[in-house]
Amino acid sequence: MAYATSNPPELLIGLQNFRMWIYKSTDASSAVDASGYITDGYARGMRQGDIVLVQDTDASPIATQICMVTSDTSEVIDLSDGVAITATDTD
Prior knowledge:
The protein has 91 residues and is mainly beta.
C-alpha cells in the first residue's frame, strides 16, 4: 500500500525542540521507513530528529516501531530503521 495524505502522521507531543508523532497504517515499518514514503511530512512540521511511532495495524499482534526522522527537505522525509516495541502477555 502507498502513503495517503488522508491518513497522515499525528503529532502527539510538540514542544519547542522535540516532537513525537504516531503513524498508523496497514503498511509494515520496512515500507514506511523508505525515503520519500511520507510525502507531506515536512509541510506538516516533521523535522530531523523527531521521533515517529510507526504502527502496523493489520499485523497480529499489532506491531509498533520507534523511528527517527533522519532527513527532512521540502520534498522528502526519511525515517530510520525502526526499533521494535514488544510486549509479552503470558496470562
